[in-house]
Structures are given as C-alpha cells and as structure tokens.
C-alpha cells in the first residue's frame, strides 16, 4: 500500500528541494521539514489510550500514546536526516542504522553497517530513506529488519519511482510505503526523473 502525502506545505517544500539552485543548507532544512510532515501522516494510526490527568481546573481522561513502542531506522547515509528530524517528535523511539550504498554500475545495494535496537521485534519500525529508486536498498534493509525479528515496518521516503514501489510490493507486500511524491521513471543510471538528484550528495555537500 502506498500513501502519497499531498499536503500543499509538503509539496511546496519538495519542489524547492528539486530545484538545482537550492544549496546544501536549505536542502537539509527542507529535508528535515518534509520528514516531519511525512511522519505526521505515517504515524496517523499510532494507538492512543485514555489516561487520567489533572489540568489546572479538573481531573479527567486524556489520550496518550500507547501500544507498541517505536523504532526509527535510517538507511545510511541519506536516511539519517529523516530520523534525526523525526526523533524530536517521538523522543522515546529507539534509533537503528543500516549502512547500504548502491553500487553505481550494478545498482545493487552493498551492505557495510547494521546496528538495530535489540528489542526491535516488540517495536513498530519506521524505516527512512529519502529515495526509493530501483528499490534494491529499501528491500534489502527491510529484509535485515525482518531477519532481526521486526514484525511491523513502514517505509518512509521523500521521492519514489514506480519501479521501486513495484519491487517493495513484490518482495514485502505487507510493508506500507509513505511518500511525498511518485515520479515518472528511472533514467539509465537509476536516478529518479524528474527527481531531485543524489540525495546524499545534496544533504552532505559531497559533490
Ligand atoms: O532504490 P535504490 O536504487 O537502491 O536507490 C536508492 C538508494 O540510493 C541512495 O543511496 P546511495 O547509494 O547514494 O548512498 P548514500 O545515501 O550514502 O549517498 C539513496 O539514499 C538510497 O539509499
Ligand atoms: O534519484 C536518485 C536515485 C538514487 N539515489 C538518489 O539519491 N537519487
Ligand atoms: Mg543509500
């Protein structure tokens, strides 16, 4: 299942991210803001239960987060900007890291790091990567989460290509995907078109 978050604030910020004239500082700020808006939608179904509280006026029941605890897991490098932003919204969440880079020739993911919360099986996992292109990286990351025992996984990306969505739907049909936009296609180098370029390079200024 794919949810495209069509909110105008988010769409405006995404358009600014696409602009080649947007520099590193602004790109980073926009990526953080877009991540928060995506999280607002991705976390819409978190459970609430009434808890007794006392306001300055009365004692009454008020909704508080309950149910499974959360884990935010970043696909390095680019996913880090998303978990860094979102953890401020859910400070009790644990944070995991999966290091993958995409080999430029084969476009296959190469794993170099993996550190996940030990109790990941008991947590709802929100996996972050700004770009879902061929889907190879996200699919491999989801497989590592499952191998570690994760039961409930949502993938949050800023941009997706139809090819990447199809791969996740094939490999992990139960994983929900929340994105800001689904673009047209991939080019011959596996870049999303129209896209926003190389997310990691634009976040960290490495090109
Ligand atoms: O869907 P895919 O075809 O696998 O491509 C998407 C991956 O490519 C980018 O990472 P990259 O390999 O550039 O590494 P980086 O985040 O360290 O820059 C991006 O952040 C995704 O992880
Ligand atoms: O368009 C793309 C595809 C993969 N990774 C990126 O950062 N951008
Ligand atoms: Mg990557």
From TrEMBL:
Cofactor binding remark: Binds 1 Mg(2+) ion per subunit. The magnesium is bound as Mg-PRPP.
Domain of life: Bacteria
Domain Phosphoribosyltransferase: 4-206
Record GO terms (molecular function): GTP binding; magnesium ion binding; uracil phosphoribosyltransferase activity
Protein name: Uracil phosphoribosyltransferase
UniProt binding sites for 5-phospho-alpha-D-ribose 1-diphosphate: 77, 102, 129-137, 198
One cellular-component annotation, GO: cytoplasm
């Amino acid at each position: 299942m794919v949810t495209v978050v069509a909110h105008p604030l988010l769409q405006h910020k995404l358009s600014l991210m696409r602009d080649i004239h947007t520099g590193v500082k602004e790109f980073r700020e926009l990526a953080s803001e877009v991540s928060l808006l995506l999280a607002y939608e991705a976390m819409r179904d978190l459970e609430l239960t009434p808890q007794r509280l006392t306001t300055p006026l009365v004692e009454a029941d008020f909704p508080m987060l309950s149910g499974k605890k959360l884990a935010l897991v970043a696909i390095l490098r680019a996913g880090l900007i998303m978990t860094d932003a979102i953890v401020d919204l859910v400070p009790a969440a644990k944070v995991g890291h999966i290091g993958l880079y995409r080999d430029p020739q084969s476009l296959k993911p190469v794993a170099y790091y993996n550190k996940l919360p030990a109790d990941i099986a008991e947590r709802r996992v929100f996996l972050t990567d700004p770009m879902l292109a061929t889907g190879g990286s996200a699919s491999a990351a989801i497989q590592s989460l499952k191998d570690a025992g994760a039961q409930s996984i949502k993938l949050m990306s800023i941009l997706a290509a139809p090819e990447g969505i199809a791969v996740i739907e094939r490999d992990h049909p139960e994983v929900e995907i929340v994105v800001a936009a689904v673009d047209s296609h991939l080019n011959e180098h596996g870049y999303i078109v129209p896209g926003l370029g190389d997310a990691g390079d634009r976040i960290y200024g490495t090109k």
